[in-house]
Amino acid sequence: MHPHIEDYALIGDHQTAALVSNRGSIDWLCLPRFDSAACFAALLGDEENGHWRIAPRGADACTRRAYRHDTLVLDSEWETDEGTVRVTDLMPQRDRSPDVVRLVEGLDGRVTVRSTLRLRFDYGSVVPWMRRSDGHRVAVAGPDAVWLRSEPEVLTWSEGRATYAEFPVERGDKVALVLTWHPSHEPRPRLLDPYESLRSSLDDWRSWAGRCRYDGPYRDTVVRSLITLKALTYEPTGGIVAAATTSLPEEIGGVRNWDYRHCWLRDSTLTLGALLSCGYQEEAEAWRDWLLRAVAGDPADLQVMYGLAGERRIPENELPWLAGYEGSRPVRIGNDAVRQTQLDVYGEVIDSLALSRRSGLPTKPHMWRMQSALMEYLRSVWRKRDEGLWEVRGPRRHFTHSKVMAWVAADRAVRTLEMEPKLSGDLDGWRALREEIHHEVCERGFDADRNTFTQSYGSRELDASLLLIPVVGFLPPDDPRVVGTVDAINAELSHDGFVRRYSSDHRPAASSIDGLPGSEGAFLVCSFWLADALHLTGRTEEACELFERLVGLVNDVGLLAEEYDPVAGRQLGNFPQAFSHVGLVGTALALFDGDEAG
C-alpha cells in the first residue's frame, strides 16, 4: 500500500525536491531539476520503480518526525525494542551538483539500521549499472550518474537489483550517507562534508525565515508555508513550480492526474502579494522578473504556463509502465493545457506588474510597454470563449471569471496611468473598455433569480473563482450580488467550508463541465478564498472559524496538497501545492495583518 499523500515530507535544494515518507523512504526525486526525469518513482508505482529507504531493520512508520524549527531539515525518529534512532534528511544548497544527505544517529540502546537503495532512472524505467569505485557505489545509465558513499564507511552489497547496507548504532554514534548526481560524461563532483552541510543548511534556512515580518496568529504555520514556497522556487531563474510532483490524483483511482512541475502565470499576483507582505522583496522581484522574461514576445502567444526557465514547449505524454498512485492512471508528464486559451492570464499578468509597481519593486524599462501591448491585444480578444482558469478539457465557454480578469487588466492599466500620467497609453479607451466589460459581466454572468454570478454566461453552474469578485475589486464586498454569490457557493459547493471548484458529480465525460469523467476533492485554495470572502462581507468570525479548520488540515510537518477529501479525511492531488500555501498565507494576512501588500 502507498503511504497517504499527507504521510510525505519535502526536502529540497531550490532546484529540485524529494518526498520522504514517514517510513523513511524517499519515493520521489527528479534530478537535476524539478521537471527532470525521476530516479525514485515509487510514489507513482512501486518499490521496483525506485526508492531509498533508511530505517531500523524490521520497522514500519517512524514514531515521530518534524522539521527543525524554521528550516527544511527533517528529523524522523523510531523507538524500537532495541533502542531509539534518528534519521535527518536534507538537500543542501548545491555548489554544482545535487546531493541528498541522510544522517543516522543513535539516541538510545543499540539499533540495527538498514538502507535499501533502488535507483531507477527515467521515471522508474531504467535500471543502472552499479559498480564500486574508491570505496563508493556508482550507478550509471545513459546521461545519469549517481554516487553513494558513507562516513564512516559501512558495508554495502548488491542483491536483486538493489544496494543494501546494514549497520548498528548506539547512543552517540553517527553515520552519514550521501547520494550525489552528476552528468555521466563529467567527473565525480567534489565530496561535501555532510555535517558541515547540515550546519550551513540550518543557518541558511533560519536566516531566511527570520526575515518574515508577519507576527500574527499561526505564525509558525505561515512561516512553514513560506518555506514551502521558497523550496518550490527554482533559484537560477526565480520561477515557482505549482508543486513538486506529477500525477498525484484528484480522485483516487481516477484519471484527473496532471503534471504540476511547471510555472503557472495565474499564481503570480497572489504569490507576489504573499511574498511582499511578509518581507521577501528579493524573492518577489525574482518571480516578477521570471514573469517578464516568460511572457516576452507577441501578446497573442501568451501561455498559461511555462517551464522553469520560461520554456514554452511542455508536451504531454503518458508513462504506461507506472501503475499510478493507488492505481490512479494514467501517469502524465508535461501538460497539454499549455496550448489552451485562458483569457484570465492577461489580467493576472497585468495585475502582478501593477502590484510590483505599487509595492516599490524596481521597474524595468520595457515593463510598461509590455503591459500596454498585452492590453491592446486583450481589447481585441476579450469577447472570445476560452477554457477558463480551471483548464477544462470540454467545450470553450464565456467563463465569468475570465471576463472579470479582463476587467482587472483594464482597471489596473487605467489606475497605473492615473498614478503616473507621464506614461503613455490609451487612458480614455481603457476606461471605456473597463466599463464595457463590467456592464457585460453584470448583465450576462449574473443570475438575478438566484442572486448569484454563474460559472459562465447563461449557465446555472456555480464556480469558486467567483469568490474573487470582491477580492479583485470588481464589486464592493457589501454589494448584494457579492453577498448572494458568497452565500450560494457556501451552500452549493462547500462541505463544512471545504469548497469544490465547481460541480463534478461523476457525470460521463461528454456531459461534464470539464470534459472529464469522475469527480475530485475540495480545492484548498478555493476554501481559503471563501474565508477571504466571508471576512470581506463582514462575517469575520465565520472566516476565522473556517481558517482554523483549514489550518487543521496541514499534515504533521505543516504541508498541504492541492485538494482534500472531507469524506475520507485525506489529502488529494499534487503535493505540496504552492497555491494552497499561498492561500493560507494570504488569508492569515487578511484576517490578522492590516498592512498586507497591494
From TrEMBL:
Cofactor (UniProt): phosphate
Residue ranges constituting the Trehalase-like N-terminal domain according to the UniProt record: 3-150
GO molecular function, one term: alpha,alpha-trehalase activity
Enzyme Commission (EC) number: 3.2.1.28
Class of enzymatic activity (EC top level): hydrolase
One BP term from GO: trehalose catabolic process
Similarity-based family: Belongs to the glycosyl hydrolase 15 family.
Name used for this protein in its record: Trehalase
